[in-house]
Amino acid sequence: MTRSPTGGPGVSGDLAVRSTGRPAPREPLARSVAAVVVSRRAIGGPVTTRLEQLARLGLRVVVVADAAPAGCTASGSAHEALARLDELGVTGRLVLLVDSHADLPAPPGSDATTVPVDGTDGVLALLDEQLRRARSHRVPDVVHDPRWAVVERGVDPARHRVTESLFTLASGGVGWRGSVEESPDYGQPLVVAAGVYAGTGVHDGLLPGPDLVDVRLRDEVQADERVLDLRTGVLYREEVGGSGVPLRSLRFAAAGAPGVFALRVEAASQRMDPGPSPEHGTWSATTPAVGHHGGIGAVARQEVGHDAGVTTLERLVAVDHTTRGRPRRARAQERLDRAGRAGFEALLAEQRAAWAQRWSRVDVRIPDDPGSELALRFALFHLWGLASDGAELAVGARALTGSGYAGHVFWDADVFVLPALATIDPEAADAMVRYRLHRLGAARERARSEARRGARFPWESAATGQDVTPARGWVGGEQVDIVTGTQEEHVTADVAWAVVHNATWSRPGAHLSDGERALLAATARYWASRTDTDPDGTAHVTGVTGPDEYHEGVDDNAFTNVMARWNLRAAARLTRAHDDECRSWLRRAAALVDGYDETTGVYEQFRGYRDLQPLVVTDLAPPPVAADVLVGRDRVARSQLIKQPDVLMLHHLVPDEVVAGSLVTNLDLYAPRTAHGSSLSPATMALVHARAGRPEAALDLLRLSLSIDLDDLGGTTSAGVHIGALGGAWQALLFGFLGARVRDGVLHLDPVLPAAWPRLAVRFRALGRDVRVDVDADLMTVAASGALAAHVPASQPYRVRADGDVHLVGAGAP
Amino acid sequence: MSDVVAVLEQDDDPQVLAMAATMATLLGCGSRQTTVPSGTDRDGRSDAITAALRDDDLAVLHAGGPESVCWDVIRRVTTPVMVLPQHPRVPARVTEVLLPLDGAPGTAAAVAAMAQRLVGAGVHVTAMHVFDAATAPAFWDQAAHSYEHWTEEFLLRNLPWAVELDLRRGRSCDEVVTRAEHSDADLLMVGWGQDLGGGRAQTVLQALTAGHVPLLLLPVTPQDLRPQSEDLAPSTTPPPTRHREA
Predict the structure, then answer these.
(1) Which residue of B has its CA nearest to A470?
(2) pTM for this predicted structure
(3) What ipTM, to 2 d.p.?
(4) For chain A, what is the total number of helices (H) and then of strands (E)?
(5) How far apart are CA A321 and CA A195, in angstroms?
(6) For testing the chain B interface, which of A474, A628, A705 should be mutated: the one with the most B CBs within 10 Å?
(7) What residues in A contact B152, CB-CB < 8 Å?
(8) So what's the pLDDT on residue B39?
(9) What angle, 0 to 180 degrees and rounded to 10, lies between the N-to-C axes of helices A344-361 and A78-87?
(10) Interface test with B, best of A160, A629, A634 (most B CBs within 10 A)
């Protein structure tokens, strides 16, 4: 069977292999750079021609002069040139400084590649090498900057599927797992698209799209080094330890061209079989055999080159996906043609620039803790993978990085991912809200079918918005009935909370759309009909499961009740419901019990919790541990062990709904009982520890959260990264350590930093602005891209400086 | 594998001979027998058995009381050894094998070749993993989905040839022996470190002293435990489960 560039069987077409290479006489640099900087004295005659040719191919060319040739940029100095290139994502050794007249030394501290050459011939040799390499599709170089690079060395089958998840690249709502080019037997290559499912009901799952990567290779790669360069969004691979020409590859999911993917591979001639290269590309598509409409199609074209004993392959792929109808080749072809006209080098230059732009708006710098800094950037990288220009965005538990959890959408999306995404890419957060809004009808139908009013959202959601939670599952080796689908009703309030939070965080004025108000009202109506009132006038929610899934079917779960109370009050405040209905919501909210004991200051997690066996998790094993797997479901249900924060989630999500000052008391009670058996748990616990003024413990928990995927703590990262944990970690930094909140259109900041972080710089989006907060020793500087009101409490320990249009308000204002 | 060798501590041990014949048929190799010399001390007898075995033989012998030479042999020889408990359930054919795995790469490496061979011979191999304080997973996010991903990855890392994975919780030795005794398992196959001291190898001890199912022991060799060279090692090598001090 012939395999197409996109993995489809039986492809036929023109064999338009273009041999573009020619023997290289010599290699002054022996690698491909991204930018060339020359001095004014170097240009003229054939050098100018070469520079123009390089610029046309997509390389950045800067001339330190008043004027520059066509397509090139003029710069006042080498220092200025490097600064400008840095803004475009071209850094370090990717910059070639051609020091032809001893007048262009690298500025102090620069890692640029500086090559002194003699005369025009030397300059030409350097430029000709770069031209030849670009034209013959040689694999470009990357910067191995430890602050930006996630590096994996070796070929370990046990680790490979994990790195496929970690190295997933995504663009335009399409995720491309980081499988190696030759797709070994132990790999799980996969392409998926957000919201494109196959199957029906509980058998829903993300539809696998056409493979983008397979390349036939003789002689296995024995060992390699793979570098995910977070700064530029490229994945680089180089064979190590062998003799001869190493296999190398570079790929990226174009941030500036949604749905376009690019790959270059090079290997010794005769080793790689690139397969056929139809002139107009090859179209492959997958559609669901049963279930929904929609599908994923990919059109790919490739060129083959030869250069100095090396065979190269350049492949460009454009993906079209849809949840309705069929994927359309014409749409993908248009993208592919546009990408093809630009060319690989230009696409890569755009890629670097697009990511540089992203990092200029959202980033974290922790100079004294590079490990946490890198891991947080890794989290941001995958959250950015959700950036989408689609009408809606379904974020499954493993995002677009694997098939785990069937791609189903849980509360993780609303509570852990969306608030993070609102600080990174507000448009994507809006698209997540639209995913829920578009399924409000299904939620209404569910409530109606259960003789309730309003709308009840499903615990697990996929294409239709109907509940797709399986009915049976396993806790370790114990087969169990799954009750989350029927009992984890808090998801309905969580969805409403996410809608309001998104508007509050991102929109000055916190304006809600009509659809959003309708959702808020419908969820409030659900709670109003779901609560029961006792003769004493108190209202209750019975038979539910809270975030702590170790205790099922409980009554008056604090989290559920308080979130329902918040939902009722928010609807009364923010919707345009009739006054009578608003008053009834407020009465019901006031009547809902929340388990708070004024004498102890403790919220009882649910009725009867305090009577359970008072185990703490270290009685069983050091956390994190899946306590239910370890000792059985019944055993944990009889104990006070909890899976993840439940009461403490309230202090994070709705601090105004809990008694002021109650965090520490409840943290002291519940933290030792928390097994962290959910991967969502450490991040939340880090956040609340920070807010409780315990930054050292918070940092330990943050590091634990950040290592879940990078170290595959749970043994299931092969099925995709835990996007909820990654979103939670970013929230822990922003909302926990930095103490960022938006209230009434004001950004509140209240940093609590560990000793290991004397310096911290965070950039994020809020209230329509790009915000920068820098903490250095005892000074906190707040800056924004436009007018912004910020509040810092007088009690916080930093001197505060507001830059630009930032206006400090409240007690901490100078 | 060259031969299955029936090691006889007495002139005639029909159970050892029957088991050896069964294994020879199953593995498609020859068989021979050797008798433990009498009149020598334990060390002498153990030396004699060790000398009689080639590197790729499979020895079959009977576990006796505390003075049995068996306990010396299984700690010394580097070849696979099948030990019959004192009152064994000797199968006429081997169709079901139970293979406990602790998730450690060395254990998986030790049993890999034999497991693959048995599966190739049509044997149904069930892998078994017991969760305890040292091996329980860190996270079990959703019972509706976690099992599928965890078990798939566990098998891919440890024993891709296994037909199925049986998960239990509790004390590993109790769970393994109980499962073997109350199932159709014809053999229990274990990768082990050849160390019976300090409370180690409780599964081996319990299977031989309290069980009835023949036990196939596959020594974990230094090669199985060898870490990859620094150049070849991944940046992190996560086990599927964490291994902590119990």
Answers:
(1) B144
(2) 0.93
(3) 0.91
(4) 23, 35
(5) 9
(6) A474
(7) 718-719
(8) 75
(9) 80
(10) A629
